[in-house]
Each structure stands twice: as C-alpha cells, then as structure tokens.
Amino acid sequence: MISQLGSAAVLLALMTCAVGAPLGYVAGASRSAAGLQWTRRMALAFALFMILAAKMKNGMASKGKLKRLHEQPAQPQTFKGC
Question: Are 57 and 6 in contact (CB under 8 A)?
Fold first, then answer.
C-alpha cells in the first residue's frame, strides 16, 4: 500500500512537471503575470509531491519493512589481479 502511494506521488510530480514546464515557457514568452503565478504553483506542487514520495520511502525504511535488505551478510570481495 505504501509503495503504491509513493508511486502515485511520483506520478503526480511528473504530471505537474509536464504541465508546469510548458506553462512557464509560454508565460515567460508572453510576459503573463498570471501565467508565472501558475508556474510557481506547479513548481511548488512538484516539490511537495517529491518530498511526499521521499518521506514515504524513508518512513517505510525506518519502520523496519526494508530491514531485511540491510541484514544480509556482506560477501567478502577478493581481488583476482590483472
């Protein structure tokens, strides 16, 4: 469930980026103050969604759900030479 929410947050961030980038280009070219305000909102929404996705990932790791990845014993690495 958490991984699905994290993936949804990343997809929402991608959507806001896909909308905000062309909007910013058009707003900058036409010097539209309202368009630049919407571009800023899209940038903030992108940041919010990415922070939310990162928090979900970190929250999952801190609750021990990813603990088994860190508990695997390290394999000794040997150098075989040239």
Answer: yes
Both tokens of residue 49?
Answer: 């969604």
> What whole-number distance in Å separates Cα of residue 64 and Cα of residue 82?
41
Establish if 24 belongs to a structural domain: yes
The model's pLDDT over 53-77, given as tens digits with 9 standing for 90+, comes to 888 876 655 555 555 555 556 666 7
- 50 lies in some domain: no
Which residue range(s) make up the domain with 29? 1-34
Least confident of 3-7, 40-44, 48-52, 77-81: 77-81
Does residue 22 belong to any structural domain of this protein? Answer: yes
